[in-house]
Amino acid sequence: MSHAISAGEGGSEVSLADKQRAVLVSLIIDFVLWIPDVFAAVLSMSIVLFADAVKCLNEIIATFFAYLTIRKMAKGGAGTYDYGMGKFETMTSVITGGVMFVSLLLVFFVAMYRIVHPESIVHEGAYLGVLLMIIGVCMNTLLWKKNYRVFLKEPSPIMDSQWRLFRTKAISDFSVLLSLIFSLALSHYAWSYYIDPVASFFIAGVLFFSGWRVITSSLPDLLDRTLDEELQMVIVQHLVVFFNDYSALHGVRSRRSGSNVYIEIFLEFDGEKRMCEVQQTIDRIKASLEAEIPKSKVSIVPTSTSVCRTDTDK
């Protein structure tokens, strides 16, 4: 079970300072509330509670990396990182997904051991675990929805991985809660010993699909994949609007860096035009695209394939 506080929702955008403060408070609260999870796992001898405690420890590590990343971004990188530090944000998402896979392996092997060597859980510790899981389901569901709303307001790799992480925790805590309830209610049956490790496999499955989704959605941007087809069509449509203002299109390059979008357009202009006229056209195209694509930075590069004529050539 793990708890965190999401960034504020007062405005249309969430500042880095708000994210940094929220993640720091989240890290502290997660660590403090992780201790009773471990205590309940030891008292109950429940493999599913142990798996949940191990999973939460890995999530605390991921949150710690997220805090370091946002802190680095908040300090800025002017003069050192001319294109910003959005890749730090993307790397944090990859780390979060990797932590999910580490948790998956730990849960899987411990559950396999308990299937081979089944044991009954200790009821006193299991009752404490039930109480903690009820709190966990309520808190993580609330934070899952809250962080998702923040993500919709300002999409970013960190917020994407955070709301998915809370969703994973809410679902896994609910499965742990059901496992403990059934284990306690059916403890007089010998086969009830297997409820605990079987529920751990469910947690492993949730971790696998969530981790896979986070990593596969973050790696392409880390490798500077071009924008998706929908945004490319927006660029083409705007270039069509200004078709008569340039002579030729020599290429378009685009990529994401965190929540920012960088677009470079190579255009050829009429050689008879003065530079001030060319610049006016560049400014109009740039303003039009940046207004249409949120958090985009557009660069129009004048390009020519022809050789300029000099006075000696006349």
Q: Would you mind describing this structure in some detail?
A:
The chain is mostly helical and 314 residues long. It folds into 2 domains: 16-219, Cation efflux protein transmembrane domain (Alpha-lytic protease prodomain-like, Up-down Bundle), CATH 1.20.1510; 229-313, 2-Layer Sandwich (Alpha-Beta Plaits), CATH 3.30.70. It is 66% helix and 8% strand. A 3-stranded mixed beta sheet has the order 1-2-3. Helix 1 (16-44) packs antiparallel against helix 4, helix 2 (47-75) packs antiparallel against helix 3 (86-116) and helix 5 (157-185) runs antiparallel to helix 6. Mean pLDDT is 77; it is low at 1-12.
Identify the notable features of this structure and list them briefly.
Alpha-Beta Plaits, 3-stranded mixed β-sheet, 2 domains, mainly alpha
Rounded to an integer in angstroms, the radius of gyration calculated over CA atoms is 26 Å
Query: Which CATH first-tier class of the largest domain would you pick?
Result: Mainly Alpha
Q: Largest beta sheet: what is the strand line-up?
A: 1-2-3
Report the principal-axis shape: elongated
Q: Give the proportion of residues in helices.
A: 55-70%
Largest β-sheet summary: 3 strands, mixed
Number of helices: 8
Q: Give the termini distance in whole angstroms.
A: 80 Å
CATH architecture of the largest domain: Up-down Bundle
- Overall mean confidence score, pLDDT: 77
Low-pLDDT parts are 1-12
Structural class based on helices, strands and sheet pairing: mainly alpha
Beta-strand content = 5-15%
Number of strands: 3
List SSEs in N-to-C order. HHHHHHHEEHE
